[in-house]
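Subject: for your reference before the review

Hello V.,

The reviewers asked for a structural picture of the protein, and I figured it would be easier to keep everything in one thread rather than splitting it across files. Below is the amino acid sequence we used in the manuscript, unchanged from the supplementary table.
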Amino acid sequence: MRPTTLATAALLALLAGCAATPPAAPTLQAGTQPAERARNVIFFLGDGMGINTLTAARIYSVGEDGELAIDSLPESAFVKTFSNNAQVTDSAASMAAYMTGVKQNNGVISMSTDTISVSPGPDANGNNLVSRCTTGSRVDTLLELARRRGMALGVVTTTSVTDATPASTYAHACHRKLETDIAASLVPGGAGYNGALGARGLDVVFGGGAQFFTPFAAGGKRADNRDLLGELSAQGFRVARDTAQFNALSPGQPVIGLFAQNHLDYHEARNPMVQPGLPDMTRKAIDMLAPSPNGFFLMVEGGLIDHALHATLAKRALQETVVYNAALQAAIDRMQAIDPGLKNTLIVATADHDHTLLLNGYTARTGKTTPGNPGVLGLVRGLDGKPKLDKDGMPYTIIGFGTGENRYAGNRAKQGSLTDDIVTRDDYHQEAVVRTNKGAETHGGADVYLGAVGAGSELFRGTIDNTRVFSLIKTAAGL
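And here is what came back from the structure prediction:
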């Protein structure tokens, strides 16, 4: 065979080989079924944990180049948080969007888009807890869908268990402040029970809010004089009211632990003999739910991040964000022991909305906050270590707020000079651009961060709407 013929034959053989090579496997598209269905789902919600807050908490805890638990999650996305009727959402509408896949009006708990939020009217004792709802219909939540598949269900929070975020997982209401009705939806067989939770209701409930389960005559908020904790006990629930009773809980029966009349105290200010911490409640909930033969769905909320930010108490907000991350790490560690490699477990961690916390100035790197180093809580300083000054010749803090209660009117030189000792106190309210009423710093409208790990986590990427998170979890878990 001549050289030219040999060359032609070689080229033809090469082309034939290329044609026979199978094409590369297509990339899994968001919304398609992942290779492994998530038998267990843990959804972490940092209430109000916007990206600025998350960044500040990282610096506070481990320094600029450190890493929090949420930073270690291999899959990530940004989430748009606007509600059906507002550019800036509240916690009810945002969490309900995650749980139902339906855009809600602000104030609404897991209802249809047309539901109008109507403030409750007064009950016989003058408390505004009576429903005046006239519009809308219920829509399924992820926990209700999980119950249909026989999964065990749990809710853990540092707020009242009837507050907007936890309520959106298991209840339906036109207004978030219908908290006695929301509490009743947890009691199997009782008036107002949410039958979509099945015959036995939730398996684990940890948080605060005992007043909404307690008759008015016994110091609670219930005008109907029902003792819901007594009813739950009669239904076979174990009831825990302090840390010793909490520690004594073991798998086998449904449990409810309410460790405060309303919300729990900030982690660093709580009495640990009365209120267990969020990491401990998370570990306990997993241990209670994991024996379920059909898997489980657990929601864990760090709710006091939001409370501290509304109060412009940055130190408390960062501490609560660190505790949230400790709970996330505790869940990852516990599930890795139960389900090595998280082959059957999806863990998603995100926030429901932003706040107006800001990181100001061109400050030098501070490193983490310690007893001798104010860190990110301190004053803006140059590379020479000297405080930078504003137009009035006064120092200012690294952390500030767009809105908040502490805004000095006029020349700041008249208020006295700030020091690191002053601005690192637990009760220091950072200065704000726009003055609000006490405790009324507002939410922000920016996108929030989402991290995910485990079965189906590859579905989360890009910039997505908060309603899309519902669809992706539903797909990952095969609900």
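For the response letter, the relevant points are probably these. Confidence is low (pLDDT under 50) at residues 1-31. The first strand starts at residue 40 and ends at 46.

Happy to draft the paragraph if you're swamped.

O.
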